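Re-run with default settings, no changes from the original entry. Doing this only to confirm the output is reproducible before filing.
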Amino acid sequence: MISYLQGALAEKNLTRVVIDVQGIGFEVFIPMSTYDRLPREGDKTMLRTYMHIRDDAMQLYGFASEVERALFVMLISSVSGIGPKIGLNMLSALPAPVLCEAIVREDVKALIRINGVGKRTAERLVVELKDKIGEVAPEIAAGVRLDHGDGEVLQAAEDAINGLVTLGFKIDASRTAVGAVSADLSDGEQTADNLIRAALVTLNK
């Protein structure tokens, strides 16, 4: 299992990138949400990855954040009819926090706007994943509403979780801590730095 790739961004377009890792070019398929956060070609980058193995192929999928990767894996492994292509479509159509909120709120209308997702698939998404969203976005599962269309608050939470992981904390503990402290901060206070500081108090107890 290749957990992440770190190297020079040799090529990029809307659906795929090539990352040069010590002279070996890895082709990685990505959602639009990840493309929007890529650096310029030639610059160093790091993507969290998931390897999908089929009888006739092995393909790598890459994501800018752990939340995106975890949600992608949950989508393709838990919901009948959702494969990697539709999983990428979903993350391209809606940022991961917005997609999580749509599932938790049972917003079928928002889900069927995604290319490849019909009403029955949207209903399966809600049934299968509503109670599992807390594993990837505890703040949304806890009822924190996404007030900004671009997901600024949830992006700050995502960045805080990644920051805590970088500091050596486990991903599950980091998600739980950030989800817990976010409820005590106003939207204006929910920057990644503030969330990390507050979460550290909880994690270090």
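The two ends are 34 Å apart (CA to CA). The first strand starts at residue 4 and ends at 12.
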